[in-house]
Amino acid sequence: MKKRVFSGIQPTGDIHIGNYLGAIQHWAASQSEFDNIFCVVDLHAITVPQEPAVLKVKTREVAGLLFAAGIDPEQSVIFVQSHIEAHAELTWILNCFTPMGWMRRMTQFKEKSLKQKAEVSVGLFDYPVLMAADILLYNTDAVPVGEDQKQHVELTRDVAQRFNAIYGETFRVPAVVIPEVGARIMGLEDPTQKMSKSESSGQTIYLLDSPDDIRAKFMRATTDSLREVRFDEARPGICNLLVIYELFTGLGRTDIEARFERKGYADLKRELTEVVVAGLGPLQARYRELTADPSHIDSLLAEGAAKIRPVAEKTLALVKERVGLG
Ligand code: AMP
Ligand code: TRP
Question: In this predicted structure, what is the pLDDT of residue 291?
């Protein structure tokens, strides 16, 4: 039996090369090894205010990009969270088994609620329990996420263990998996900040950026006043550009440093633009093909949900039985 891997991605903002190198690329590469489920988490998105029409468009766009990045609907499942009602229902039940004290420790909630101007919703506070429901519904063995989501997966484990301790073995307790290289791609303007969907566009290379945009952003990327092109963490700008180069080319660090030995930052930026444009080209072409017929993505998503819904419903039925519901 292959191990089941579950991961989620929010349909907010635009998907960028940090998402691609830190998450999506690993998901696509591991398809034959694992039984992969990828969820576009629209219920998580509404924990902060969203424009309804934009949310709908983004949900399809993110799904389209996952397919375009090589996630094969024959091998893996891609579906939209709100298409399977069991996510919301299990969240409610798990809420009743999650101590407030555990939730108050969640650092992402603290950060997000400080940043948010509008009043913070109960949903934002409850976000990690919805994430636990996502993971636990599918008997997940492993959850590949970036560093920022580790605490939420640990909470998922705690909730599963607590429920199992009360009602007997019900949930599989998942492991968290953090990718090693490229776990944190930094911004281009401010390389001390993570590249993220909510940042300004100069900070971020989006998967659907045109070659001209990509070139302009790399050319403007912050570096330093030195000249040597080296992987040196004390020089975050150059180091980040080199990590992106490394991940797009698959070359070793010594080879890369040797290649730029007698060259300057402008050469690095030019070559980096070339490899990123070439790396994203096929993905962008597949995306355009897939979205030429707007209903195509919808039918792939409906198939994904239909394929995996019975697993979610079986877990939910067992949980309700254990708790004495119905
Ligand atoms: P998010 O954009 O926060 O919805 O994240 C989607 C996935 O991409 C998660 O697994 C994140 O941890 C990962 N991710 C987001 N930003 C970066 C980044 N700058 N570098 C590497 N991985 C990232
Ligand atoms: N909260 C995750 C993020 O913002 C997305 C997510 C939702 C997720 N449910 C999940 C990730 C379940 C892994 C497993 O990145």
Answer: 94
Predicted confidence at residue 181, as pLDDT, reads 56
Q: Give the residues surrounding ligand 2 with Cβ less than 6 Å away.
A: 6-10, 41, 44, 131, 134-135, 143, 145, 149
Superfamily classification of domain 4-177+294-323: HUPs (3.40.50.620)
Task: Give the pairing type, strands 77-80 and 142-144.
Answer: unpaired
| Dist. CA 10 → ligand 2 center (Å) | 7
User: What residue ranges of the chain have pLDDT lower than 50?
Assistant: none
HSE-up (13 A, CA, CB side) for residue 176: 17
What local confidence, expressed as pLDDT, does residue 144 receive?
A: 87
From the CA of 167, how far away is ligand 2's center (Å)? 26
Secondary structure of the chain: what % helix, strand, coil (to 5)? 60, 10, 35
pLDDT value, residue 108: 96
Give the other-Cβ count within 10 Å of 126's Cβ. Answer: 18
Q: Give the pTM.
A: 0.91
CB 124 within 8 A of CB 168: no
Return the amino acid letter for 172. Answer: R
Helical (H) or strand (E) element with 280: helix 265-292
Contact 208, 287 (CB under 8 A): yes
Q: Largest alpha-carbon pair distance within the chain?
A: 72
**Which superfamily, per CATH, for 201-288?**
Tyrosyl-Transfer RNA Synthetase (1.10.240.10)
The predicted-structure confidence for 256-272, as pLDDT tens digits, reads as follows 999 999 999 999 999 99
